[in-house]
Write a structure and sequence with these properties.
The complex is a heterotrimer of chains A (about 280), B (about 220) and C (about 240). Helix content of chain A is about 30%, strand content about 35%. By secondary structure, chain A is an alpha+beta fold. In chain A, the strands form four sheets. In chain A, strands 2, 3, 4, 5, 7 and 8 form a six-stranded mixed beta sheet that branches. Chain C has a single domain, classed as 2-Layer Sandwich (Ribosomal Protein S5, domain 2). Classes of the chains: A alpha+beta (about 280), B alpha+beta (about 220), C alpha+beta (about 240).
Chain lengths: ~280, ~220, ~240
């Protein structure tokens, strides 16, 4: 996949930076505010789980497919997960057809780490027969419209898809998955739900949920994935991206801010997803 | 026919039948039928039936004022991005007198935006010029983009719509026929003007546009 | 046993519930969704625009470049992401079908990118894709003589049926089902795409053509309504 570069007019760059100097963003958003969010579940019926997340005009679709495989050595009684991400060329003018480029590979791996390390998925509960057969979770994430912050929207969509997924029927006698036949059993998920937040750096200002123009102007970004298994917030993944250089104070500030953002947004989003799952049943 | 009552037609649709009608822009005549060849609004003249496009890329015409951003600097001028599959070029000879091969960068850098006039078209190449009063470098402010086919509605009859927006938001605005629009004013006012223009882009084909815009600007005044 | 009733209870010439809408992808120059029942396709159009690398440009005409992609989770068993022989063939037949109605002389040396994504699959994916692509092209203001509409006609047992589902495709009595996807121009009724997979006596082929023309007329009406701003969803 080729990603063509885009030129942002210098005066627009200056305007955005000028606003940030006054602690404002264009569109009156605060530096740590998300755009309007919308989540839908079950948007692709053949998937074991699927979700569509819109943040502002950015739209991401994620789907979960399950199958079985032999476990990895050293993890003989644990299920597996792979996360795959692609920018569909229909999501923006700059994307052209081709194999996934490093941008989408990095996104998939960041999303994967946050989910994996949070303890969100009970890997042992995915074991069918130790040493022989385990459930394998495949998460595929696609960008349908790019208006910035694909990273966080991807994570949200993947997690929502996992939360709404049901096992396909497993025939014990034949030892095969009966694809297309769904059970009422959900994936073995814990309450350690990860929440991924990415700060975009523009001239030393740190913004949450950058739109396309802000992201194009930014030098780099810093992603923090948190979960809260008990009373403490735990960092499950970090990734500095792009060409910014952060001081240790800035890193600490972002971690501090991420805790506040988690408190403001995470519960709201999680409740919305749980409500959607309930109404689907 | 009242401007507000135009209907949308789609490719292949028979707009009207009758010997007296003549096929205008984006239509053809097959026997007695005038058939649409493009998605857009029908415009009935006395005999000529044509389609007014509401989507699609910018179609340049000589004399158009367009806004563009310098993409690259070559030895004798500037390559400019004006949208669409065009290569737009501003040669030195169209620049102010002091510009020459040695000081191109002093006049405009990559990423700088200017208001140009289209001097010549040899598709896909377009020659740009700056020789007119209201053209030249755009300093400060910001540039937004709308679909070029909505520009007439943004300008309004004899500039009525754009003047309304300029007045109520106290901003300077230059509208490029290519859909690139420059706005300059106080931060909040620039945003108000931008939102008003985006509203026009969205609602352009519906009735009561002027009223909607007036109400929007009034609400924002509070 | 003879096929007297369709598995989902439809009449022999009945389409599945249709969903059709335009403008679903804000960034695209034109975009649309088209669905037959559980088969859902979206299409996004960008262009005319520069074609890179330049040597692929045709200096005399505009090129339509299609890409057809089924999301891995759109089917029952996960499909590996990326192009395969089937998707490349479908992209080609789609390009050929659309190229016949688009005015390719207006912007020589440019490309119109048509991207088709299948969100959910239950047979007739290529037809749903073509229907969405035709709407998206029109929505993008591309100059076209007419629209094209696409449908899968099937022969199951001795019956000619309209808009076959996967269940019907897999039907194996009477020698198996035959899948005949058509794409037909809205005005001239010319056939711009036609394939056949299975068996059908020559004498009966005309029935398939008639069924296709009739179905495509109905589909064209949905496409027109969606382009005029309606959000059609017969599933609701």
């Amino acid at each position: 996949m080729k990603i063509n570069s885009v030129r942002i007019p210098n005066i627009n760059k200056r305007k955005i930076i000028e606003s940030l100097g006054k602690n404002k963003r264009l569109n009156n958003r605060g530096l740590l505010d998300y755009r309007d969010m919308n989540i839908e579940l079950g948007i692709s019926k053949n998937a074991e789980g699927s979700a569509r997340v819109k943040i502002g005009k950015t739209e991401i679709i994620a789907g979960v497919k399950l199958s079985t495989q032999e476990p990895y050595p050293d993890h003989e009684d644990e299920g597996t997960m792979s996360v795959f991400m692609e920018f569909s060329p229909l999501c923006g003018e700059r994307y052209e057809s081709g194999p996934p480029k490093i941008d989408s590979i990095e996104i998939a791996r960041i999303v994967d780490r946050g989910i994996r390390e949070s303890g969100f998925i009970d890997w042992k509960a995915l074991c069918i027969k130790k040493n022989e057969k385990v459930w394998s979770i495949m998460v595929d994430i696609y960008c349908i419209n790019d208006d910035g912050n694909i990273l966080d929207a991807s994570s949200m969509a993947a997690i929502a898809a996992l939360q709404s997924a049901y096992f396909p029927r497993y025939d014990e006698k034949e030892e095969k998955v009966k694809f297309g036949e769904f059970t009422k059993n959900k994936l073995p998920l814990t309450k350690n739900i990860p929440f991924q937040m990415t700060f975009y750096e523009i001239k030393e200002n740190l913004l949450l949920d950058a739109d396309r123009e802000e992201e194009d102007i930014s030098n780099g970004r810093f992603t923090i994935t948190l979960s809260q298994p008990k009373n403490e917030k735990i960092i499950n993944a970090l990734q500095k991206g792009g060409k910014s250089a952060f001081s240790s104070q800035e890193i600490n500030l972002m971690i501090e801010n991420s805790e506040k953002i988690y408190d403001t947004y995470f519960l709201k989003i999680d409740n919305q997803i749980k409500k959607l799952i309930k109404t689907k049943n | 026919m009242n401007k507000e009552e135009r209907k949308i037609v789609v490719p292949g649709e028979i707009i009207v039948s009758g010997e007296k009608y003549l096929p205008g822009d984006f239509t053809i005549k097959n026997k007695e039928d005038i058939i649409a060849n493009r998605y857009g609004l029908v415009d009935f003249g006395e005999r000529i039936v044509k389609i007014i496009p509401i989507s699609g890329i910018f179609e340049p015409r000589r004399g158009n004022v367009v806004i563009g951003t310098v993409r690259d600097i070559s030895f004798n001028g500037y390559n400019v991005e004006i949208g669409g599959p065009y290569s737009a070029f501003l040669p030195i000879m169209e620049c102010p007198r002091f510009v020459n091969k040695e000081n191109l960068l002093d006049f405009a850098k990559i990423g700088d935006s200017l208001a140009f006039r289209i001097v010549n078209i040899k598709k896909p190449s377009i020659d740009l010029g700056l020789k007119s009063r209201n053209l030249g470098k755009l300093n400060d402010g910001r540039i937004i983009k709308i679909n070029s086919h909505k520009v007439p509605r943004v300008i309004g009859k004899e500039g009525s719509m754009i003047n309304l927006i300029k007045e109520k938001t106290n901003t300077e605005i230059t509208v490029g026929q290519n859909g690139f629009i420059w706005i300059k004013g106080e931060l909040e006012n620039e945003e108000k003007a931008r939102d008003a223009i985006k509203l026009i882009e969205k609602e352009s084909i519906f009735n009561g546009l002027t009223q909607k815009v007036e109400e929007f600007l009034k609400i924002k005044e509070k | 046993m003879v096929y007297t009733k369709r598995t989902d209870g439809r009449k022999m010439d009945q389409l599945r519930p249709i969903k059709a809408e335009v403008g679903i992808i804000p960034n695209a120059d034109g975009s649309a969704l088209f669905a037959y029942g559980d088969t859902v396709a979206i299409a996004g159009v960008y262009g005319p625009k520069h074609l890179h690398p330049q040597h692929l440009q045709n200096p005399e005409k505009c090129t339509i470049r299609c890409n057809y992609n089924m999301l891995p989770f759109s089917v029952t068993e996960r499909a590996r992401p990326g192009p395969n022989r089937r998707s490349k063939e479908i992209a080609l037949i789609t390009e050929n079908a659309l190229s016949t109605v688009v005015d390719l002389d207006r912007f020589p040396g440019t490309v119109i990118d048509v991207e088709i994504v299948i969100l959910q699959a239950n047979a007739s994916t290529r037809c749903a894709g073509i229907n969405a692509a035709a709407m998206a092209l029109a929505h993008a203001g591309i100059v076209m003589k007419e629209l094209v509409s696409s449908v899968s006609i099937g022969k199951i047992d001795d019956k000619i049926v309209t808009d076959i589902t996967k269940e019907e495709e897999d039907h194996d009595l009477g020698g198996g089902a035959t899948d005949i996807p058509f794409t037909i121009c809205s005005n001239s009724k010319k056939i711009v795409h036609l394939q056949l997979d299975g068996k059908i006596p020559t004498k009966r082929f005309n029935e398939a053509i008639d069924a296709a023309i009739s179905a495509c007329e109905k589909i064209n009406q949905y496409q027109i309504r969606a382009l005029k701003g309606e959000k059609i969803d017969e599933n609701k």
